[in-house]
Specification:
alpha+beta, DNA Polymerase III, Chain A, domain 2, 9-stranded antiparallel β-sheet, 8-stranded antiparallel β-sheet, 26 strands, transferase, Beta sliding clamp, DNA-directed DNA polymerase, 3'-5' exonuclease activity
Length: about 375
């Protein structure tokens, strides 16, 4: 393999693919990048056995097609520090040589057939074409996915397609985020659990490129293609929690409506004083007046908000961070919070995001 490439193209592709590379691994080859030169392009791939990211970029010239597996961090840092605008990389046998004006760097290489590729061309059970609204859907639910690797099913996002409606749902057991959007009617009903880690990479790519998205979902993995970037991930095995039963169906006892930005600002101020592992804020509804309170060893605050409240008086406590994340998940000017009781879940809806629903469990007041 031998090619010439601009530093800008090379570094951009490296920085994209390297996001799938683990910083440490018992399998050394997974800390490397697979480089492949073919048809005037350079493909760079990173993989940690569960997630794979591939980025293609134009080469100035491909002198000899081929592939090489090169340590990721070292390659990235060296290319970043080269001041020349173009460079060449040649690989043959156990070494790769990177040359630039005035110098060259020799890097040890792995054998290409040792690299753990995920089969992005595997048979897909469903293929979808989605727009930038899928990026908004991802932003709206990813915050609620769990981080406990001992409960892997909670670290994923459920993707369901039924009768032309695409539903994303994420929960960590304390909160739930759901987003519904229209999708092309599917030949088959889809219900897969995709790692939130992979979907965060998809959301990041969509934010950077703004291009259309092709999604292929198979029995064991999913592939997302955006322009010249491909994200492939294994699916999470297991049964996703039946979240629909957790959403209150009856009329709420109290409803608060008003400015989303004003409520968020007040909760942010309260969060400063709500110290501890579980920063607690209290929302009180008394005679139609809404107040936010917080108290800790650092001090206390109480703020009356210009929000509309209907229904019963209520005093309810929340983890400030959880409630704020539910409110910040989408953009909008007006918010509605429906309370089902002081120990029941609160439902968050935002005016400009009709497909979004956030559910937050309250804390018990002592």
């Amino acid at each position: 393999m031998h090619f010439r490439i601009t530093k800008e193209n090379f570094l951009t592709a490296i920085n994209t693919a390297i996001r799938a590379v683990p910083s440490r691994s018992p399998l050394p080859v997974t800390t490397a990048l697979l480089l492949r030169a073919v048809n005037g392009q350079v493909e760079i791939t990173g993989s940690d056995l569960e997630l794979m990211i591939r980025c293609s970029t134009p080469a100035r010239e491909v002198y000899r097609e081929g592939e090489a597996v090169i340590p990721a961090r070292q390659l990235a840092e060296i290319v970043r520090r080269i001041t020349d605008t173009e460079m060449e990389l040649e690989a043959a046998g156990p070494n790769a040589i990177l040359t630039y004006e005035g110098g060259e760097v020799q890097l040890a290489a792995f054998l290409p057939d040792e690299f753990p590729l995920l089969g992005s061309e595997a048979t897909a059970e469903e293929v979808l074409e989605l727009g930038t609204d899928f990026r908004d859907a991802l932003r709206a639910v990813l915050y609620a996915a769990g981080k406990d690797e001992l409960r892997p099913i909670f670290t994923g996002v459920q993707v369901q397609i039924v009768d032309g409606t695409l539903t994303l749902a994420a929960t960590d057991g304390h909160r739930l985020a759901v987003y519904e959007m229209t999708a092309a009617k599917s030949q088959n009903a889809v219900a897969s659990v995709i790692p939130a880690k992979a979907l965060r990479e998809v959301e990041r790519v969509l934010s950077q490129t703004g291009g259309g998205l092709t999604v292929s979902i198979g029995a064991n993995q999913a592939c997302f293609r955006v322009d010249s970037i491909e994200v492939v991930t294994r699916l999470i095995e297991g049964r996703f929690p039946e979240w629909r039963g957790a959403v209150p169906q009856g009329p709420p006892i109290t409803v608060v409506k008003g400015s989303l930005s004003q409520l968020v600002s007040a909760l942010e101020r309260a969060q400063v004083l709500a110290a501890g592992e579980t920063p607690t804020v209290i929302i009180k509804v008394t005679g139609g007046t809404v107040t936010v309170e917080a108290q800790s060893e650092y001090g206390g605050m109480r703020e009356t908000l210009p929000l509309e409240a209907t229904g019963d008086d209520l005093e309810i406590a929340f983890n400030a961070g959880y409630l704020l994340e539910a409110l910040r998940a989408t953009t909008g000017s007006a918010v509605e919070i429906a309370f089902s009781g002081k120990i029941g879940p609160a439902l968050v809806r935002v005016s400009e995001a009709p497909g979004y629903l956030g559910l937050v469990l309250p804390l018990r007041l002592v």
